[in-house]
Amino acid sequence: MDRNLLIVSTICFLAAVVRTGVALRAGVFQPGRFSFLAIGLGFIFQTAFLFMRGNSLGRCPLTNLFEVFVFLAWSIALIYMLVGPTYRLSLMGAFTAPLVLLLQGFALIAPIDVRHAVKVPANPALEFHASISLIAYGAFALACIAGVMYLVQERQLKTHHLHSTFYFLPPLTDLFAAITRLLWWGFILYTIGIIGGFFTGRPLPRIQVIAAVAVWLLYAAILQGRYLRRIAPKRIAALCIIGFSVALTLLWGITFSAQTHSVP
Amino acid sequence: MNLFCVGLSHHTANVETRERFAGGAAAGSALRQAGCAEALVLATCNRVEVYGVSEKRVSTDEIAQCLSQRSEVIVGGHSETPPFYRYEAEECVQHLFRVACGLDSMVVGETEILGQTKKAYQSARTDGAVGPLLHRLFQRAFRVAKQVRTHTQIARGSVSVGSVAVDLAEKIFGELGNCSVLVLGAGETSERTARALVSRGVMDLRVSNRSNDRARELAQKVGGRDVNFDQWPQQCGEIDILITSTSSEAPLLTQTNLGPMLVHRIDRPLFIIDIAVPRDVDPAVNEMEGVYLYDIDALRSVAEQSLALRRQQIASAEAIIAEHVRDFLEKISRELIAGSRLTAHPPVVDPSLRPSQL
């Protein structure tokens, strides 16, 4: 039953992607309510899935790679719902939906929904650490998407070749401000998540600590470069994409390592 | 009852002819005298059209005579008969919707025509020349125009060099209120562009010219301040938009001399509008991080892209219009049938609303 909810949610994101793709192809793209509603609906089904899965597990549904991917997709949709309309980044939905679809689609297709034997009792501190860290990943993902939007807009302005999407992209300076805010949100949440990890009452595997600190340092460096004016906005945008790709790879590693060692 | 449109436009007549038939204060009363129960004159720089409703058919020549500015104009079978077009019923409805949407304009998708149509409607209404049919027709036309603008990209992008520059500035900086602008060279085009930027909220505008007097004069005109021509390079570190149009033979800005000016502004873009011929800015400057250089050709190219984008939208706009034409005619037919039943009189308009019989 819970998996069906996820399938419905994925169909909602697919609908948003298809509609955007068709409109872009026809050159009549307009960020309208459909995309926002489709993502909103997908988010509701995601939430229902996580709620049901959490109930059946008796803990936060982060016990395997499948759940981690779905939780991450949920975090991205959550941050989009909070950030997209607020910063007039309506076109962000066109970029968010494919990423969520990719994550959820992969989670559904790949044989990674493996139930592990629960080795330790539920630990609220550990669950807090993991969930806050994943929501931070959601903010990093949105920063990555805003980075893609920045680069698309920048490229069009540089080459003097304007596509129909150009008129729906927010101004460069607004996008850069959004990237900065999202980086801060992600960084603060991630810092809280990492600190939370030290209060779980159990030693964390060294590899996980190293990976988490590496991601933290990476984003700290990006933010420092931005505030010391050492890195140009275009490079910050590119670093957001690289940063999230690295963070996602490390998340995979952390989850894989956690699965092979113990389950929260 | 006839619903018709008779007119001249940039498609069919040159400006001289359009001037001759621009109509005047007396056109409304002349049209009524000619037998129009309702009449509205839409006169713009690109068209002169009469939308009318009459019991009996009013000929095109009679309409032309009403619109004529000069009594000596000869109409009615003579070789001088100007190229008036005439649309009846359904075609008239469709034509008005196309006009209101900017599909019939010289620059496809321009929105000025909607304002002009609204003004003409208001004026005719004040004069008591608009009856129930024209009232409903024009109200529907305004609705269609709004829908077309919302649901297609027919009005998207700018199609003139000046407005392209301003639009691009807004796409880079968002609100222009906090932007600093330097106008280098006090030519006519830079003045127009500067004015357009000021109209969009620019507060800090500086003008520099080889002739200080000319710089001061332009600065006063556009509400900016003049800067000594020797000092313009130092300004480049502070400004966000540079409009340059000097008559310099060699480029004033190159990667070499612009590089040091940008060191302390790595997180702020610089938008350069080079409208000088020969160019004031070396094209290689566009390759610099955070610098967006548009010369006159680039601005024209963007304008052409916008126009091409608008043309792509014509089919979508026509589809919306066709739907509204059908719906409008159906509603009018239904109401006319209901009205005739109530009054037990024969309908004033044939319910089938065939073009020739409306």
Give a quick rundown of the structure:
The complex is a heterodimer of chains A (264) and B (358). Chain A is an all-alpha fold. Helix content of chain A is 76%, strand content 0%.
Describe what this molecule looks like in 3D.
- Chain A contains eight helices and no strands.
- Chain A is 76% helix and 0% strand.
- Chain A has one domain (2-115, 122-261).
- Chain B is an alpha/beta fold and 358 residues long.
- Chain B has two domains: 2-156 and 313-343, Beta Polymerase, domain 2, CATH 3.30.460.30; 161-307, NAD(P)-binding Rossmann-like Domain (Rossmann fold).
- Chain B has helices spanning 15-20, 27-33, 60-67, 89-101, 112-126, 132-151, 161-173, 188-199, 212-222, 232-235, 255-262, 296-312, 314-343, and strands spanning 2-9, 36-43, 47-54, 85-88, 180-184, 204-208, 225-227, 241-244, 270-274, 291-295.
- In chain B, helix 11 (255-262) links the parallel strand 8 and strand 9 (270-274).
- The longest helix of chain B is centred in the C-terminal third of the chain and has 30 residues, at 314-343.
- Chain B starts with a strand and ends in a 15-residue tail after the last helix.
- Mean pLDDT of chain B is 85; it is low at 343-358.
- At the A-B interface, helix 5, helix 6 and helix 8 of A face helix 7 and helix 12 of B.
